[in-house]
């Protein structure tokens, strides 16, 4: 069954209820073939003590969008996805606005997937580059 872009985004956003993603204000905003984008507001809730975006919040955003993309693009209803390795390089500070995480697939196997997540600010400047490896588990 083929879903519309709106149906896919609504499904991803529905998964966020009562989770860390809802706590951090993460929402899914765009989807295309093998690509999913989520955004997160930057403010005191996700700041480190000196008033800039906490790297851990960026990593939570990246793992959220990468794992959701893995679930979405596997198109297999009886699987669970787990992040098994994540590595992030933070290159720019952000104090306010939004950050956007764009997950694109580098390898999509039946058991493991490798995702590149590019996190940018409102000006489309690179904030963090993240690599996520996911594992698919049969339910």
Question: What labels describe this entry?
Answer:
139 residues, alpha+beta, 6-stranded antiparallel sheet
Architecture overview:
With 139 residues, the protein is α+β, with helices and mostly antiparallel strands. The protein has a single domain (5-138), classed as Thiol Ester Dehydrase, Chain A. The protein has 3 helices and 6 strands. It has a 6-stranded antiparallel sheet with strand order 1-2-4-5-6-3. The two termini are 21 Å apart.
Assigned CATH class? Alpha Beta
CATH superfamily: Hotdog Thioesterase
Shape: globular
SSE string, helices as H and strands as E? HHEEHEEEE
Strand proportion, as a percent range, falls in 35-45%
**Secondary structure tally: strands:** 6
- CATH fold name, please? Thiol Ester Dehydrase, Chain A
The CA-CA distance between the termini, in Å, is 21 Å
Could you name the ranges where pLDDT drops below 50 across 5 or more consecutive residues?
none
The biggest beta sheet is recorded as: 6 strands, antiparallel
What is the share of helical residues?
A: 25-40%
Structural class: alpha+beta
Count structural domains. 1
| Rg, Cα atoms, Å | 14 Å
Summed over residues and divided by their number, the pLDDT gives a mean of 94
H/I helix tally? 3
Please give the order of strands in the largest beta sheet. Answer: 1-2-4-5-6-3
CATH architecture: Roll
């Amino acid at each position: 069954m083929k879903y519309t872009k709106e149906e896919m985004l609504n499904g991803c956003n529905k998964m966020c209820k009562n989770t860390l993603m809802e706590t951090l204000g993460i929402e899914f905003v765009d989807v295309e073939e093998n690509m999913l984008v989520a955004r997160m507001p930057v403010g005191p809730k996700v700041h480190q003590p000196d008033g800039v975006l906490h790297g851990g919040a960026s990593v939570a955003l990246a793992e959220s969008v990468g794992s959701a993309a893995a679930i979405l693009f596997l198109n297999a209803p009886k699987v669970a996805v787990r992040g098994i390795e994540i590595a992030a390089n933070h290159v720019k500070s952000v104090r306010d606005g939004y950050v956007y995480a764009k997950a694109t697939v580098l390898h999509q196997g039946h058991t493991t997937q490798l995702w590149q997540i590019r996190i940018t600010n409102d000006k489309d400047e690179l904030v963090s580059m993240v690599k996520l490896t996911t594992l698919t588990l049969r339910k």
